[in-house]
Amino acid sequence: MARVYLIPARADDPEEEIARKIRHLWERASLGECFLPNDLTAVKLHVGEPGKTTFVSPGVVTPLVRLLKERGARPFLTDSAVLYRSPRDTGAGHTAVAHEHGFTLERVGAPFLPADGLTGADEVEMETCGKHFDTASIAAAVARASSLLVLTHATGHLATGFGGALKNIGMGCSSKKGKLRQHFGRQPDIDGVICTGCEACAADCPEEAIGVDRVAVIDSAKCIGCGACVAACLEGAVRFDWEVGGAELQERVVEYAGPIVAGRRGRLACVTVAMNITKDCDCLGSPQHPVCDDIGILASRDPVAIDQVFLDLVRERTGTSLESLTYPDHDGSVQTAYAEELGLGERGASLILIE
User: Fold this and answer.
1) 236 CB burial (10 A radius; 0-12, 13-18, 19+)
2) Among 72, 67, 107, 114, which Cα is nearest to 91's?
3) With a threshold of 0.70, does the pTM exceed it?
4) Domain range for residue 192?
């Protein structure tokens, strides 16, 4: 049976206290065994959107980086570009936001490296399994890292009801094309008002399905919906329909998490921060307020178990589900059930409380 460790903590705990608790959690959960000397260790996190304050702070990241270095690993902080209009939709902008929010080499002890490069197109195709995909477009830096520390801020989510470790891996570690494939139900089209006719999308289209006169036009008969044009367009002129949602989106996210989890057996550790638990994920730019009291910090080597335990703890502490506090039309446990079905972990877990 999988083990999940919990140490109570509050968002307003002093940084020194958070660091002490994280070290105790790390040792009790034996997370250090996942990391070897000279590992290029990806610390997958979310640096937050400008104007947001409830993301996991550098004060949580710093002691984790220190612990990785004590193992002889060479950690780097990382995340992938987003599809929506944001400073984080390019590697340069993403790095700037990370630095503005304190995720610097001087503050944290490790550099921030955009996982999918400058435009969100640096990726590695990896085989996956399930009913939606045969391959997954994974951000190159994550695919090539020696080991992975998944640092997650557990929250609600507009499209899935719950954002935890599995979503942090499946959606957060995919390239722009991978994100589009998870969300996408139809082929993209071009907004002729925004398009400048720069031909970047046409140059990157693997099927030569885009022609450019004054503006770009997609030939629907040739288009395979791969999403390369989304990554190529820096103007935001390539539009797509966020058609896939709910249970199917959760399944797609899990299938993208599959090759990362399966390829990191014994080399992947999860730390989930269950503090400042908000209705929406950290991608929302506006300030948010917690929907329930802080629980603490969880650790496990099993991303399925840690997600399920978090959901169970919310229900235990509040008397209702996380989704009922955020988006009642969703059932976030779809992703943990499907991940268990695909062999990515266990929902049944032993919870060990660290006093």
Assistant:
1) middle
2) 114
3) yes
4) 186-239
